[in-house]
Amino acid sequence: MFPTLGHLINYFFGINILFPMPTYGFVLVMAFLSGGLVIRQAFIFREKQGDISFQKGKKLVSGPIDYSELVMGIGFNFVVGYKIGGIITDYDLFTKGVDTYIFSTLGSLWIGLVLAGLTAFYSYYKAKQKYSPEKVFEEVDVYPHSLWLNIMVVAAFSGIIGAKLFDILENLDSFFQDPMAQLFSSGGFTFYGGLIMGVLGVFFYARKQKINILVLMDAAAPAILVAYAVGRMACMLSGDGCWGIPNPEPKPEFLALLPDWMWAYDFPHNVIKEGVPIPSCHGDYCYMLDVPVFPTPFYESTFSAVFALIIWSLKSKIKAGGILFFMMLIMNGITRFFIEKIRVNNTYDIGASHITQAEIISSFLVVGGLIGIFFMIRTYRATKP
Q1: Domain stops at, among 81, 110, 139
Q2: Which terminal CB of the chain, N or C, has fewer other CB atoms within 10 Å?
Q3: CA 45 to CA 223: how far, in whole Å?
Q4: What pTM value is reported for the model?
Q5: Could you list the pLDDT tens digit for every one of the 385 residues in the chain?
Q6: DSSP class per residue in 110-155
Q7: Burial class (CB within 10 angstroms; exposed 0-12, middle 13-18, buried 19+) of 320
Q8: Do 364 and 240 share a structural domain?
Q9: Which are the contacts of 97, defined by CB distance < 8 A and separation ≥ 6?
Q10: Radius of gyration from C-alpha coordinates of the chain
């Protein structure tokens, strides 16, 4: 496992550097970025097909100097310089605890002030170039694909909030014991919470931008699957505890061509330091599971990648809007429901049944997807000759 990017770099290049950036966080950022790039390409395709067009917008050409905006930019860059400068000048302290250092008051005052000063000079110079007593706007064409970065940011923020919220609901006992630790911990995120809140956040943003909702849904379908595939690799690469149940059974003969770790894996050097000590290992991450488990993040990532390719290949064949989105919900729901059977998770006791939060939500996704497809086909047939 690669708890930090330093471990990953050292493994591939055979070197020995200390770079403590958490692999989980980095890959999670890559997940949102990859999803954003996919939705951008999907929008470009829809624009060429004539399914969606541009909206008229206004761009500020010149106007009075907005000193509040200048102050905010200067303050932001001061904080960036303060922290990055501190990391450079006190790297050893940074490597001992990345999260602790970032959220502390430690940093480099001089580097922060230098960057703030340069920002102030440059921002004022640019503002003077665009100065006019009154605000002057020009009309521009705003295409949906140009908004992909905004959509990604909205999905990221609302998705992280949802993932944290649903994790708290799933672990209420731990939350009530130490609410602050649960709220501000770097771990503890639930995918379906992120999916639900992320979709709602993007939905309201799209309405504000007057983007056709059905086109957005179908454009988002492969993007969500790609983001999920990459995001689950964050769990797999770091060993964050989102793995399967113990699997001590030998690999079946029909899987002989596959590597052993695809059947059962002991997650050495996992980021949560769970298991038994690794012999002759020195450092912070020297633990491995005493009994191998199903590598469920790898399974979910693989299925999501395959489903994303399927959805993408159908984008020009299925004409009824919304179908691809609801197909994505069904695919993901079925996969997650069955993977829950071999995955470590908290369960709810409902009568004699023990069911997980993900099993409940995935069941609703499958049913909702089937209902959605039925109504989309019915609506399409009623509006098209």
Answers
A1: 139
A2: C
A3: 13
A4: 0.83
A5: 899 888 899 988 888 888 888 898 899 889 989 999 999 999 999 999 888 888 888 888 899 999 999 999 999 999 999 999 999 888 888 877 776 787 788 899 999 999 999 999 999 999 999 999 999 988 888 889 999 999 988 988 898 888 888 777 766 777 677 666 555 555 556 767 787 888 889 989 988 888 889 999 999 999 999 999 999 999 999 998 889 999 999 999 999 999 999 999 999 999 999 999 999 888 889 999 999 999 999 999 999 999 999 999 999 999 899 999 999 999 999 999 999 999 877 666 666 667 887 888 899 999 999 999 999 999 988 887 6
A6: HHHHHHHHHHHHHHHHHHHHTB-SS-EEEEEEE-GGGGHHHHHHHH
A7: middle
A8: yes
A9: none
A10: 24
| Residue 206 and residue 83 in one domain | no
Q: Tokens 């999916």 sit at which residue?
A: 195
Query: Which domain covers residue 81, as residue numbers?
Result: 60-139
Cα(222)–Cα(304) distance, integer angstroms: 9
Residue 151 tokens, joined: 């959509």
Q: Which two tokens stand for residue 149?
A: 């970065």
- Write out the H or E segment, with its range, that includes residue 62: strand 55-62
